[in-house]
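Let's do one together. I've listed all components of the complex below, 554 residues spread over two lines.
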Amino acid sequence: MTEKTDFLNGNVACAEGAIAAGCRFFAGYPITPSTEIAERMAARLPKIGGTFVQMEDELASVAAIIGGSWAGARTMTATSGPGFSLMMENIGYAAMTETPIVIINVQRGGPSTGQPTKAAQGDMLQCRYGSHGDYSIIALSPSSVQEMFDLTVRAFNLADRFRTPVFLMADETIGHMREKVSLHSDVEIIPRRELKEGELPCAPDENGVPGFGTFGNGHNIHITGLTHSENGYPSTDSAEVHEQLIRRQVGKIEDFRNEIADVDIVNPDAEYIFISYGAPTRTVRQLMADVPETYGHLNLRIVWPFPDESLLAFKNAKAFIIPEMNLGQIAKEVRQYTNIPIVIVPKLGGALHTPAELKKAAEVAKTVTKPMTEVRL
Amino acid sequence: MKTEIRFSGLGGQGIITAAVILGRAAALYSKKHVVQTQSYGPEARGGASASAVIISDDPVYYPNVTNPSVYVIMSQEAYNKYGNNAPEDALMLLDPGFVTSRPVCRCFEVPATSEAKSQLGKTVFANVIMLGALLEATGIVTYDALEHAVLDSVPKGTETNNKRALAIGQELVRSQL
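Okay, and this is what the predicted structure of the assembly comes out as:
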């Protein structure tokens, strides 16, 4: 295995992960704090037979990577809050047409232009629900520079395996800090399954995923955002066709949520359990290193679909303590799967929770009785 | 063993580059655990610039600096913001061409900018002179590790002058020991 180590920031590591995964088409519009991803892709792709396009906006960026994907390429874009909002329409189109694409969101403070240079996790529900209609997606959350590389690779494999938009929901902290990173060049590649001759273009296999009729391979297929039957043509009047299509598209991800799950479970016998993803995971781990054997920890590398079964690992749990750089977006998802009291620890403004703040939240957790309690830092 | 190093000065002085080079020397050539961060805002040349490196024998989880023990300061504004708070047992390297205040802690005056100009013809080498001085004052990494990281990071054709800059920085501290 060829392996190069370097000392890079998370955004650059993400771009290198994309290239290692075989991404050869990037279309995007630079935005703080994600710009280093576009810069790196612009510098690297032309030298390795790839294409970088700076688009006129983020609507077009997603449109372009959808087109690139249908031409057979692994494609990606990168953005932050305001650009992410503009992408929502075509994200729905990618979901409905089952197009594998990877979207990186290096989250900053919102809403609107908000805090361009500050870290946040405020787009976690938008990435799940931001486009209209019922659909499902996959979202990953890195907490180190190495994970910016590794999870970007994984995002491409999940996109192809499940034929879905996949989001890497990073944040400014992880995007801009530098750490040592191993840049493996021979990463595992799980290719998308090509449509077989005689197979209908939108007929599912045993996993609920149709074969992919790459443009130019002579499949003669029709791709549409309208409700369509298994032959790929619009069929917008039939309740049965619509319900079957939407339930299959949602089920091909949600029915596999515990296979997709990627979590770390630490001290499962503890009574007070931190649940975190992304940058706050760093603080939880620091606290656990400073006071070992005191708390439990569930770290989510995949946030959507939510890995609900992982909550069952904590048999003695008296409270789940959930630090997020938002007002409790994932905490409300956790609430759906447990009756154990939840302590939300929101932090806005860009700074990461400190270990002392999490310790304080853990003290509050020992006294709570209500289903949901907020600790104001 | 965990050491937190704060670099601060003006945009354009190579403050962040210096921190990245030190981080690289420790992470890639000294087998240490390292996180490097920087202040990030709508900043420009001439504005405030700050960066930090955490170097540890154990994994570094919380990435933000809490108690720096080493300060490299290249502007009075940076001194007012960071240097004033330096505890007595800290170590400070400052460029006396820019900083008039002096701390209560141990301090080396490293005229990096004027020496860069007079000995190497360009002030652009001031940050590498500071790294040479930091190396001599702390021994936080080996000379070889730092030289490797400098040579990885600088433009082709400037290797000789950058190695000289390291030596100038080392000598500026050695003469004060």
